Records
---
Amino acid sequence: MVIDFHTHTFPDSIAEKAVAHLSRVGHTAAFMDAKRDTLVQSMKENHIDISVVLPVATAPTQVSGINALSAKINGRDGVYYAGAVHPDCGNIDETLDFIKANGLFGIKLHPDYQGVHFDDVRYLRIMEAAAKRGLYIITHAGIDIAYRDHVHCTPDMVLHALDALGGIIDNKLILAHMGGYELPDEVLEKLCGKPVLMDTAAVLDLYPEKCAEIIRSHGAKRVLFATDSPWRSQKQFVELLCSLPLKEEEKENILHKNAESILFAN
Ligand SMILES: [Zn+2]
Protein backbone atom coordinates (compact mmCIF):
# COMPACT_ATOMS: atom_id res chain seq x y z
CA MET A 1 0.00 0.00 0.00
CA VAL A 2 1.21 3.52 -0.82
CA ILE A 3 -0.13 6.85 0.45
CA ASP A 4 1.05 10.11 -1.12
CA PHE A 5 0.56 12.65 1.66
CA HIS A 6 1.18 15.87 -0.29
CA THR A 7 -0.48 16.66 -3.61
CA HIS A 8 -2.32 19.60 -5.16
CA THR A 9 -5.32 19.76 -7.44
CA PHE A 10 -7.50 22.62 -8.61
CA PRO A 11 -11.07 22.66 -9.89
CA ASP A 12 -11.09 21.88 -13.65
CA SER A 13 -12.26 25.41 -14.50
CA ILE A 14 -9.12 27.06 -13.08
CA ALA A 15 -6.54 24.23 -13.16
CA GLU A 16 -4.77 25.34 -16.34
CA LYS A 17 -4.52 28.99 -15.31
CA ALA A 18 -3.40 28.14 -11.77
CA VAL A 19 -0.65 25.78 -12.91
CA ALA A 20 0.57 28.22 -15.58
CA HIS A 21 0.76 30.99 -12.97
CA LEU A 22 2.52 28.86 -10.34
CA SER A 23 4.96 27.48 -12.94
CA ARG A 24 5.84 31.02 -13.95
CA VAL A 25 6.43 32.43 -10.45
CA GLY A 26 8.26 29.30 -9.30
CA HIS A 27 10.21 28.75 -12.52
CA THR A 28 9.21 25.07 -12.40
CA ALA A 29 7.43 22.96 -14.96
CA ALA A 30 4.49 20.90 -13.76
CA PHE A 31 4.81 17.18 -14.31
CA MET A 32 1.13 16.88 -15.20
CA ASP A 33 -1.96 19.05 -15.08
CA ALA A 34 -3.53 19.67 -11.69
CA LYS A 35 -6.98 18.27 -12.37
CA ARG A 36 -8.40 15.76 -9.93
CA ASP A 37 -9.04 13.18 -12.67
CA THR A 38 -5.41 13.36 -13.77
CA LEU A 39 -4.25 12.69 -10.20
CA VAL A 40 -6.60 9.69 -9.96
CA GLN A 41 -5.21 8.39 -13.26
CA SER A 42 -1.63 8.79 -12.01
CA MET A 43 -2.56 6.91 -8.83
CA LYS A 44 -3.98 4.02 -10.85
CA GLU A 45 -0.92 3.81 -13.09
CA ASN A 46 1.54 3.92 -10.21
CA HIS A 47 -0.26 1.82 -7.58
CA ILE A 48 -0.83 4.72 -5.20
CA ASP A 49 -3.83 3.78 -3.04
CA ILE A 50 -4.43 7.17 -1.44
CA SER A 51 -3.45 10.75 -2.23
CA VAL A 52 -3.87 13.65 0.17
CA VAL A 53 -4.66 17.00 -1.44
CA LEU A 54 -3.54 20.13 0.42
CA PRO A 55 -5.57 23.16 -0.72
CA VAL A 56 -4.13 26.59 0.12
CA ALA A 57 -6.47 29.53 0.72
CA THR A 58 -4.71 32.72 -0.42
CA ALA A 59 -7.58 34.92 0.82
CA PRO A 60 -10.06 34.52 3.71
CA THR A 61 -12.98 34.63 1.27
CA GLN A 62 -11.86 31.33 -0.32
CA VAL A 63 -11.94 29.28 2.86
CA SER A 64 -15.58 28.23 3.19
CA GLY A 65 -15.95 27.34 -0.50
CA ILE A 66 -12.80 25.22 -0.55
CA ASN A 67 -13.79 23.37 2.62
CA ALA A 68 -17.36 22.74 1.48
CA LEU A 69 -16.10 21.11 -1.71
CA SER A 70 -13.37 19.11 0.08
CA ALA A 71 -15.88 17.82 2.65
CA LYS A 72 -18.25 16.73 -0.10
CA ILE A 73 -15.74 14.63 -2.03
CA ASN A 74 -13.32 13.61 0.76
CA GLY A 75 -12.25 9.98 0.31
CA ARG A 76 -13.75 9.52 -3.16
CA ASP A 77 -11.40 7.53 -5.44
CA GLY A 78 -8.90 7.43 -2.57
CA VAL A 79 -8.38 11.20 -2.62
CA TYR A 80 -8.48 12.83 0.82
CA TYR A 81 -8.30 16.53 1.67
CA ALA A 82 -6.82 18.78 4.32
CA GLY A 83 -8.96 21.69 5.43
CA ALA A 84 -8.12 25.23 4.36
CA VAL A 85 -7.76 28.16 6.74
CA HIS A 86 -6.38 31.68 6.38
CA PRO A 87 -4.64 33.77 9.08
CA ASP A 88 -7.11 36.61 8.49
CA CYS A 89 -10.25 34.48 8.88
CA GLY A 90 -12.64 36.06 11.35
CA ASN A 91 -14.32 32.76 12.19
CA ILE A 92 -11.51 30.34 12.96
CA ASP A 93 -13.47 28.33 15.55
CA GLU A 94 -16.41 27.86 13.21
CA THR A 95 -14.06 26.92 10.34
CA LEU A 96 -12.17 24.35 12.44
CA ASP A 97 -15.43 22.91 13.78
CA PHE A 98 -16.62 22.41 10.21
CA ILE A 99 -13.33 20.71 9.23
CA LYS A 100 -13.48 18.41 12.24
CA ALA A 101 -17.18 17.60 11.89
CA ASN A 102 -16.67 16.61 8.26
CA GLY A 103 -13.92 14.15 9.03
CA LEU A 104 -10.97 16.00 7.47
CA PHE A 105 -7.73 15.04 9.24
CA GLY A 106 -6.21 18.48 9.58
CA ILE A 107 -5.41 21.87 8.09
CA LYS A 108 -2.87 23.21 5.62
CA LEU A 109 -0.88 26.39 6.23
CA HIS A 110 1.33 28.10 3.67
CA PRO A 111 3.25 30.98 5.29
CA ASP A 112 4.62 32.27 1.97
CA TYR A 113 1.30 32.35 0.12
CA GLN A 114 -0.55 33.59 3.20
CA GLY A 115 1.94 36.39 3.94
CA VAL A 116 2.83 35.50 7.55
CA HIS A 117 5.75 34.00 9.38
CA PHE A 118 5.19 30.54 10.79
CA ASP A 119 5.46 31.75 14.38
CA ASP A 120 3.10 34.71 13.83
CA VAL A 121 0.56 35.01 16.65
CA ARG A 122 -2.31 34.46 14.19
CA TYR A 123 -0.88 31.09 13.17
CA LEU A 124 -0.16 30.18 16.80
CA ARG A 125 -3.82 30.78 17.68
CA ILE A 126 -5.02 28.71 14.72
CA MET A 127 -2.62 25.85 15.51
CA GLU A 128 -3.60 25.78 19.16
CA ALA A 129 -7.31 25.67 18.31
CA ALA A 130 -6.72 22.97 15.65
CA ALA A 131 -4.63 20.72 17.91
CA LYS A 132 -7.21 21.01 20.71
CA ARG A 133 -9.75 19.54 18.28
CA GLY A 134 -7.38 16.68 17.43
CA LEU A 135 -6.60 18.09 13.98
CA TYR A 136 -3.16 17.81 12.39
CA ILE A 137 -1.40 20.88 11.01
CA ILE A 138 0.65 20.59 7.83
CA THR A 139 2.73 23.53 6.72
CA HIS A 140 5.05 24.44 3.90
CA ALA A 141 8.52 24.61 5.47
CA GLY A 142 11.77 26.07 4.22
CA ILE A 143 12.44 28.07 1.08
CA ASP A 144 9.58 28.65 -1.33
CA ILE A 145 10.84 28.80 -4.89
CA ALA A 146 8.59 31.77 -5.65
CA TYR A 147 9.95 33.79 -2.68
CA ARG A 148 13.56 32.67 -2.45
CA ASP A 149 14.92 35.70 -0.61
CA HIS A 150 12.45 35.63 2.30
CA VAL A 151 11.90 32.34 4.12
CA HIS A 152 8.60 32.41 6.06
CA CYS A 153 9.04 29.07 7.86
CA THR A 154 12.61 28.51 9.09
CA PRO A 155 13.64 25.76 11.53
CA ASP A 156 14.08 28.48 14.17
CA MET A 157 10.49 29.65 13.70
CA VAL A 158 9.31 26.04 14.07
CA LEU A 159 11.25 25.70 17.33
CA HIS A 160 9.80 28.98 18.52
CA ALA A 161 6.21 27.89 17.73
CA LEU A 162 6.66 24.52 19.46
CA ASP A 163 8.00 26.30 22.50
CA ALA A 164 5.40 29.09 22.52
CA LEU A 165 2.57 26.54 22.42
CA GLY A 166 4.05 24.52 25.28
CA GLY A 167 3.55 21.05 23.83
CA ILE A 168 0.00 21.53 22.50
CA ILE A 169 0.98 20.85 18.87
CA ASP A 170 3.61 18.20 19.66
CA ASN A 171 3.27 15.25 17.24
CA LYS A 172 0.44 17.07 15.42
CA LEU A 173 2.67 19.26 13.27
CA ILE A 174 3.74 18.01 9.85
CA LEU A 175 6.58 19.92 8.18
CA ALA A 176 6.55 19.55 4.41
CA HIS A 177 9.72 19.08 2.38
CA MET A 178 11.63 17.10 5.04
CA GLY A 179 11.36 19.92 7.54
CA GLY A 180 12.60 22.70 5.27
CA TYR A 181 12.91 22.93 1.50
CA GLU A 182 16.59 23.25 0.53
CA LEU A 183 17.61 23.49 4.21
CA PRO A 184 18.54 19.85 5.00
CA ASP A 185 21.63 20.69 7.05
CA GLU A 186 19.74 23.12 9.27
CA VAL A 187 16.97 20.52 9.68
CA LEU A 188 19.55 17.93 10.72
CA GLU A 189 21.01 20.33 13.22
CA LYS A 190 17.83 21.80 14.71
CA LEU A 191 14.72 19.72 14.01
CA CYS A 192 15.67 16.04 13.98
CA GLY A 193 14.37 14.40 17.13
CA LYS A 194 11.83 17.15 17.84
CA PRO A 195 8.13 16.16 18.19
CA VAL A 196 7.22 16.90 14.57
CA LEU A 197 6.46 14.84 11.47
CA MET A 198 8.08 15.53 8.10
CA ASP A 199 7.04 14.71 4.53
CA THR A 200 9.27 13.86 1.57
CA ALA A 201 7.52 16.18 -0.92
CA ALA A 202 9.63 17.80 -3.64
CA VAL A 203 12.99 17.03 -2.04
CA LEU A 204 13.47 13.28 -2.43
CA ASP A 205 14.70 13.89 -5.99
CA LEU A 206 16.86 16.90 -5.07
CA TYR A 207 18.98 15.33 -2.34
CA PRO A 208 18.05 11.68 -1.64
CA GLU A 209 21.17 11.05 0.47
CA LYS A 210 20.36 13.97 2.77
CA CYS A 211 16.76 12.71 3.03
CA ALA A 212 18.03 9.29 4.12
CA GLU A 213 20.28 10.98 6.68
CA ILE A 214 17.36 13.00 8.07
CA ILE A 215 15.15 9.88 8.18
CA ARG A 216 17.81 7.96 10.09
CA SER A 217 18.33 10.80 12.52
CA HIS A 218 14.65 11.72 12.98
CA GLY A 219 13.15 8.21 12.84
CA ALA A 220 11.09 6.55 10.10
CA LYS A 221 7.99 6.58 12.31
CA ARG A 222 7.79 10.34 11.90
CA VAL A 223 8.21 10.62 8.12
CA LEU A 224 5.46 10.52 5.49
CA PHE A 225 5.89 9.62 1.83
CA ALA A 226 4.83 12.59 -0.32
CA THR A 227 5.49 13.93 -3.80
CA ASP A 228 4.05 17.47 -4.29
CA SER A 229 2.31 16.28 -7.45
CA PRO A 230 1.75 17.86 -10.02
CA TRP A 231 5.20 19.39 -9.47
CA ARG A 232 6.77 15.98 -9.05
CA SER A 233 6.11 12.49 -10.48
CA GLN A 234 4.46 9.89 -8.26
CA LYS A 235 6.18 7.13 -10.26
CA GLN A 236 9.65 8.61 -9.78
CA PHE A 237 9.12 9.29 -6.07
CA VAL A 238 7.99 5.74 -5.24
CA GLU A 239 11.10 4.45 -7.02
CA LEU A 240 13.30 6.93 -5.16
CA LEU A 241 11.85 6.06 -1.75
CA CYS A 242 12.22 2.32 -2.42
CA SER A 243 15.86 2.82 -3.44
CA LEU A 244 16.87 4.56 -0.20
CA PRO A 245 19.20 2.54 2.03
CA LEU A 246 16.52 1.86 4.68
CA LYS A 247 15.09 -1.29 6.27
CA GLU A 248 11.90 -2.74 4.76
CA GLU A 249 10.04 -1.96 7.95
CA GLU A 250 11.13 1.68 7.78
CA LYS A 251 9.94 1.95 4.19
CA GLU A 252 6.56 0.46 5.13
CA ASN A 253 6.17 3.04 7.87
CA ILE A 254 7.02 5.89 5.51
CA LEU A 255 5.03 4.62 2.51
CA HIS A 256 1.74 4.09 4.34
CA LYS A 257 1.64 3.05 8.00
CA ASN A 258 2.34 6.46 9.51
CA ALA A 259 -0.14 8.11 7.15
CA GLU A 260 -2.83 5.53 7.93
CA SER A 261 -2.65 6.33 11.62
CA ILE A 262 -3.22 10.01 10.81
CA LEU A 263 -6.00 9.63 8.24
CA PHE A 264 -7.86 6.84 10.01
CA ALA A 265 -7.19 7.72 13.63
CA ASN A 266 -10.84 7.44 14.63
ZN1 LIG B 1 3.03 21.56 -2.00
---
Amino acid sequence: MKPLQLYTDSLFVSPYAMSVFVALHEKGLDFDLLELDLEAGEQHHAGFAQLSLTQRVPTLVHGDFVLAESSAITEYLDEAFAQAPLYPREIQARATARQIQAWLRSDLLVIGQERSTLVVFCGQHYGPLSARVQLAATKLLEAAQTWLADGRDCLFGEWSIVDVDLALMLNRLILNGDPVPPGLQPYAQRQWQRPSVLKWLALPRPAR
Ligand SMILES: N[C@@H](CCC(=O)N[C@@H](CS)C(=O)NCC(=O)O)C(=O)O
Protein backbone atom coordinates (compact mmCIF):
# COMPACT_ATOMS: atom_id res chain seq x y z
CA MET A 1 0.00 0.00 0.00
CA LYS A 2 1.20 3.52 -0.78
CA PRO A 3 1.12 6.17 1.97
CA LEU A 4 -1.79 7.89 0.19
CA GLN A 5 -5.02 6.15 -0.76
CA LEU A 6 -8.06 7.68 -2.41
CA TYR A 7 -11.44 5.97 -2.17
CA THR A 8 -13.58 6.73 -5.21
CA ASP A 9 -16.77 5.42 -6.79
CA SER A 10 -16.26 2.46 -9.10
CA LEU A 11 -18.12 4.20 -11.96
CA PHE A 12 -15.82 7.24 -11.75
CA VAL A 13 -18.71 9.70 -11.98
CA SER A 14 -18.28 11.42 -8.60
CA PRO A 15 -17.38 15.09 -9.19
CA TYR A 16 -15.95 15.26 -5.67
CA ALA A 17 -13.72 12.22 -6.11
CA MET A 18 -12.63 13.74 -9.43
CA SER A 19 -11.60 16.97 -7.71
CA VAL A 20 -9.37 15.11 -5.24
CA PHE A 21 -8.00 12.77 -7.95
CA VAL A 22 -7.02 15.83 -10.03
CA ALA A 23 -5.47 17.51 -6.96
CA LEU A 24 -3.31 14.46 -6.23
CA HIS A 25 -2.11 14.33 -9.83
CA GLU A 26 -1.43 18.08 -9.94
CA LYS A 27 0.73 17.65 -6.83
CA GLY A 28 2.54 14.75 -8.50
CA LEU A 29 1.69 12.45 -5.59
CA ASP A 30 1.64 8.69 -5.95
CA PHE A 31 -1.50 7.08 -4.53
CA ASP A 32 -3.63 3.97 -4.58
CA LEU A 33 -7.07 4.42 -6.13
CA LEU A 34 -9.55 2.24 -4.25
CA GLU A 35 -12.98 1.76 -5.79
CA LEU A 36 -16.28 1.34 -3.98
CA ASP A 37 -19.45 0.15 -5.67
CA LEU A 38 -21.84 2.76 -4.29
CA GLU A 39 -24.88 1.21 -5.96
CA ALA A 40 -24.14 -2.02 -4.06
CA GLY A 41 -23.76 -0.04 -0.81
CA GLU A 42 -20.07 -0.84 -0.29
CA GLN A 43 -19.62 2.57 1.36
CA HIS A 44 -21.67 1.24 4.28
CA HIS A 45 -19.76 -2.02 4.67
CA ALA A 46 -18.01 -2.38 7.99
CA GLY A 47 -14.42 -1.68 6.96
CA PHE A 48 -15.14 1.58 5.14
CA ALA A 49 -17.92 2.69 7.50
CA GLN A 50 -15.44 2.53 10.38
CA LEU A 51 -12.79 4.36 8.37
CA SER A 52 -14.76 7.25 6.85
CA LEU A 53 -16.69 9.79 8.92
CA THR A 54 -19.20 10.40 6.13
CA GLN A 55 -19.24 6.92 4.56
CA ARG A 56 -18.91 8.71 1.26
CA VAL A 57 -16.36 9.15 -1.49
CA PRO A 58 -13.96 10.78 -1.75
CA THR A 59 -12.18 9.68 1.40
CA LEU A 60 -8.43 10.11 1.63
CA VAL A 61 -6.11 8.01 3.76
CA HIS A 62 -2.68 9.46 4.46
CA GLY A 63 -0.78 7.08 6.71
CA ASP A 64 -2.96 6.80 9.79
CA PHE A 65 -4.89 10.02 9.03
CA VAL A 66 -8.28 9.78 7.34
CA LEU A 67 -10.25 12.67 5.84
CA ALA A 68 -13.56 13.01 3.99
CA GLU A 69 -15.21 16.01 2.25
CA SER A 70 -13.53 16.89 -1.01
CA SER A 71 -12.68 20.55 -0.37
CA ALA A 72 -11.32 19.72 3.11
CA ILE A 73 -9.14 17.10 1.42
CA THR A 74 -7.81 19.44 -1.28
CA GLU A 75 -7.07 22.12 1.32
CA TYR A 76 -5.24 19.52 3.42
CA LEU A 77 -3.22 18.33 0.42
CA ASP A 78 -2.27 21.91 -0.39
CA GLU A 79 -1.00 22.49 3.15
CA ALA A 80 0.69 19.11 3.55
CA PHE A 81 2.50 19.19 0.18
CA ALA A 82 3.91 22.58 -0.84
CA GLN A 83 4.61 21.82 -4.51
CA ALA A 84 2.20 22.83 -7.29
CA PRO A 85 -0.32 24.99 -5.36
CA LEU A 86 -3.98 24.05 -5.63
CA TYR A 87 -5.27 27.37 -4.28
CA PRO A 88 -4.20 30.99 -4.84
CA ARG A 89 -1.59 32.11 -2.32
CA GLU A 90 -2.92 35.67 -1.88
CA ILE A 91 -5.26 35.64 1.12
CA GLN A 92 -8.33 37.30 -0.45
CA ALA A 93 -8.05 35.32 -3.69
CA ARG A 94 -7.73 32.17 -1.56
CA ALA A 95 -10.85 33.11 0.43
CA THR A 96 -12.73 33.77 -2.82
CA ALA A 97 -11.62 30.39 -4.15
CA ARG A 98 -13.02 28.69 -1.04
CA GLN A 99 -16.22 30.73 -1.40
CA ILE A 100 -16.73 29.46 -4.94
CA GLN A 101 -16.02 25.87 -3.90
CA ALA A 102 -18.51 26.15 -1.04
CA TRP A 103 -21.15 27.66 -3.36
CA LEU A 104 -20.69 24.93 -5.96
CA ARG A 105 -21.13 22.35 -3.18
CA SER A 106 -24.21 23.93 -1.56
CA ASP A 107 -26.71 26.25 -3.34
CA LEU A 108 -25.64 25.16 -6.83
CA LEU A 109 -25.85 21.44 -6.03
CA VAL A 110 -29.46 21.58 -7.18
CA ILE A 111 -28.21 21.75 -10.79
CA GLY A 112 -26.96 18.18 -10.38
CA GLN A 113 -30.51 16.97 -9.69
CA GLU A 114 -31.42 17.60 -13.36
CA ARG A 115 -27.91 17.49 -14.88
CA SER A 116 -26.14 14.56 -13.25
CA THR A 117 -22.50 13.88 -14.02
CA LEU A 118 -23.71 11.12 -16.36
CA VAL A 119 -24.02 14.05 -18.82
CA VAL A 120 -20.36 14.88 -18.32
CA PHE A 121 -18.82 11.42 -18.15
CA CYS A 122 -21.26 9.11 -19.95
CA GLY A 123 -22.89 11.20 -22.71
CA GLN A 124 -26.37 11.17 -21.13
CA HIS A 125 -28.86 13.92 -22.11
CA TYR A 126 -31.81 15.31 -20.21
CA GLY A 127 -34.81 17.51 -21.11
CA PRO A 128 -35.34 21.19 -20.28
CA LEU A 129 -34.54 22.46 -16.79
CA SER A 130 -37.33 23.16 -14.32
CA ALA A 131 -37.81 26.82 -13.30
CA ARG A 132 -36.20 26.11 -9.92
CA VAL A 133 -33.02 24.64 -11.38
CA GLN A 134 -32.92 27.21 -14.19
CA LEU A 135 -32.74 29.90 -11.51
CA ALA A 136 -29.64 28.29 -10.00
CA ALA A 137 -28.11 27.75 -13.45
CA THR A 138 -28.69 31.42 -14.34
CA LYS A 139 -26.98 32.53 -11.12
CA LEU A 140 -24.01 30.29 -11.91
CA LEU A 141 -23.72 31.45 -15.53
CA GLU A 142 -23.98 35.14 -14.63
CA ALA A 143 -21.31 34.78 -11.96
CA ALA A 144 -19.01 32.77 -14.24
CA GLN A 145 -19.41 35.39 -16.99
CA THR A 146 -18.34 38.10 -14.56
CA TRP A 147 -15.36 36.11 -13.26
CA LEU A 148 -14.16 35.24 -16.77
CA ALA A 149 -15.21 38.45 -18.56
CA ASP A 150 -11.71 39.24 -19.83
CA GLY A 151 -11.38 35.83 -21.49
CA ARG A 152 -8.88 34.58 -18.91
CA ASP A 153 -7.88 30.91 -18.87
CA CYS A 154 -8.13 30.52 -15.09
CA LEU A 155 -10.23 32.17 -12.40
CA PHE A 156 -7.29 33.54 -10.44
CA GLY A 157 -4.65 34.11 -13.11
CA GLU A 158 -2.90 30.84 -12.22
CA TRP A 159 -4.71 27.50 -12.37
CA SER A 160 -6.43 26.39 -9.16
CA ILE A 161 -8.52 23.35 -8.21
CA VAL A 162 -11.58 25.64 -8.31
CA ASP A 163 -11.17 25.87 -12.10
CA VAL A 164 -11.82 22.15 -12.36
CA ASP A 165 -14.80 22.34 -9.98
CA LEU A 166 -16.28 25.26 -11.95
CA ALA A 167 -15.64 23.63 -15.34
CA LEU A 168 -17.34 20.45 -14.09
CA MET A 169 -20.45 22.42 -13.10
CA LEU A 170 -20.46 24.35 -16.41
CA ASN A 171 -20.04 21.09 -18.35
CA ARG A 172 -23.20 19.69 -16.79
CA LEU A 173 -25.00 22.34 -18.89
CA ILE A 174 -22.66 22.66 -21.87
CA LEU A 175 -22.43 18.94 -22.63
CA ASN A 176 -26.21 18.58 -22.29
CA GLY A 177 -26.61 21.24 -25.01
CA ASP A 178 -28.11 23.87 -22.70
CA PRO A 179 -27.58 27.50 -23.72
CA VAL A 180 -24.41 28.95 -22.18
CA PRO A 181 -23.01 32.47 -22.80
CA PRO A 182 -20.06 32.77 -25.17
CA GLY A 183 -16.66 32.46 -23.55
CA LEU A 184 -17.68 29.88 -20.96
CA GLN A 185 -17.53 26.94 -23.34
CA PRO A 186 -13.89 27.59 -24.40
CA TYR A 187 -12.96 28.02 -20.73
CA ALA A 188 -14.52 24.67 -19.80
CA GLN A 189 -12.93 22.99 -22.83
CA ARG A 190 -9.48 24.27 -21.85
CA GLN A 191 -9.91 22.93 -18.33
CA TRP A 192 -10.95 19.59 -19.80
CA GLN A 193 -7.61 19.40 -21.66
CA ARG A 194 -5.49 19.46 -18.49
CA PRO A 195 -3.44 16.25 -18.21
CA SER A 196 -4.73 15.59 -14.67
CA VAL A 197 -8.33 15.89 -15.89
CA LEU A 198 -7.63 13.70 -18.94
CA LYS A 199 -6.38 10.99 -16.54
CA TRP A 200 -9.76 11.00 -14.77
CA LEU A 201 -11.66 11.04 -18.08
CA ALA A 202 -9.61 8.04 -19.26
CA LEU A 203 -10.71 5.82 -16.35
CA PRO A 204 -12.83 2.91 -17.60
CA ARG A 205 -16.58 3.46 -17.27
CA PRO A 206 -19.09 0.73 -18.07
CA ALA A 207 -21.39 1.50 -21.01
CA ARG A 208 -24.83 2.50 -19.73
N1 LIG B 1 -19.77 16.96 0.33
C1 LIG B 1 -19.14 15.74 -0.08
C2 LIG B 1 -20.07 15.01 -1.04
C3 LIG B 1 -19.58 13.60 -1.33
C4 LIG B 1 -20.66 12.79 -2.04
O1 LIG B 1 -21.80 13.23 -2.25
N2 LIG B 1 -20.26 11.58 -2.43
C5 LIG B 1 -21.20 10.67 -3.08
C6 LIG B 1 -20.69 10.29 -4.48
S1 LIG B 1 -20.72 11.69 -5.54
C7 LIG B 1 -21.31 9.39 -2.26
O2 LIG B 1 -20.34 8.92 -1.70
N3 LIG B 1 -22.52 8.81 -2.26
C8 LIG B 1 -22.80 7.58 -1.58
C9 LIG B 1 -23.65 7.76 -0.37
O3 LIG B 1 -23.98 8.91 -0.02
O4 LIG B 1 -24.00 6.77 0.25
C10 LIG B 1 -17.78 16.05 -0.71
O5 LIG B 1 -17.57 17.19 -1.16
O6 LIG B 1 -16.89 15.18 -0.71
